[in-house]
Amino acid sequence: MMLEIKGLVKRFGSFTAVDGLDMKVEKGSIFGFVGPNGAGKTTTMKIMCGLLKADDGSIFVDRSDLLRKSSDIRERIGYMPDFFGVYDDLKVKEYMDFYEGAYYIPYSERAAITDKLLDMVNLADKKEVYVDSLSRGMKQRLCLARSLVHDPDILVLDEPASGLDPRARMEMKSILKRLSDSGKTIIISSHILPELDQMCSHVGIIEKGRMVAQGTVEEISAVVSGRTVINIVVLDKKDELFKALDLDPLCTDIKLTEMGAEVAFTGGEAQLAHLLGKIVKADIPVVSFDKKKYDLENVFMEVTGGGVDA
Q1: Which of 57, 106, 220, 280 has its CA 20 to 30 A from that of 32?
Q2: What is the pLDDT of residue 215?
Q3: DSSP characters for the chain?
């Protein structure tokens, strides 16, 4: 486990913004952190990055509690906030040099780090350009590059694709995928749920300061609904397929489709394998037998009771 949060609490006067939050993020994963307005996402992320002090709880990275050893936060985590935070009167290379200095990176090493990171975010040709002349998408990528100057293990990104056009969002998504493939653990908060659905290996849904569901989209949906939906495609014998499913007590809500059937299944993996075996034994020509892919937006609405994400 790369990062684990246990019992995190943050109060602002009488208001509890984060209320005993538990969260687990696997090493090298892209973890989507979503929830309704005011759920506590940004507060949690700021605590992770050392910008707010927690009232209680622990944040472990490889068994080291960052809340007890705050110097580790600076070393292990890179943070990209939901605002630019750029200095418009600086050139891109000067902007990078400023943040490298803030992390005490030796001056002799800064140029090489700048070149490497600007190349990674496709800004190598903008090194001599003033920051205020960059497009919004370029500024977002520059902010991502600056969060990487100290080579952190974990990236915490608050709305990294906010306000970007489709092409810029695709470019950002591609960069984040490469970072994940290189071993970085990435935590992303975003209101663009379809983007997270395509990008993230796992998601966590927070509501009223508590983690109400986490895992893959399929795992969360199965827990919430208590069932798995199976799509079965056959060459023919749809009526025989329906009868075979109807006789199984673990199959409910059977619907014939153009190519076969869709069925809600309440059993585990062993029972699912047994069901497939029965269908094949009945001489029904199965083309495919797959778990239905779930949509993050639908799962989010089901878990939160229709709350609006932000």
Answers
A1: 57
A2: 87
A3: --EEEEEEEEEETTEEEEEEEEEEE-TT-EEEEE-BTTSSHHHHHHHHTTSS--SEEEEEETTEETTT-THHHHHHEEEE-SS----TTSBHHHHHHHHHHHTT--HHHHHHHHHHHHHHTT-GGGTTSBGGGS-HHHHHHHHHHHTTTT--SEEEEESTTTT--HHHHHHHHHHHHHHHHTT-EEEEE-S-HHHHHHH-SEEEEEETTEEEEEE-HHHHHHHHHSSEEEEEEESS-HHHHHHHHHT-TTEEEEEE-SSEEEEEE-S-HHHHHHHHHHHHHTT--EEEEEEPPPPHHHHHHHHHTSPPB-
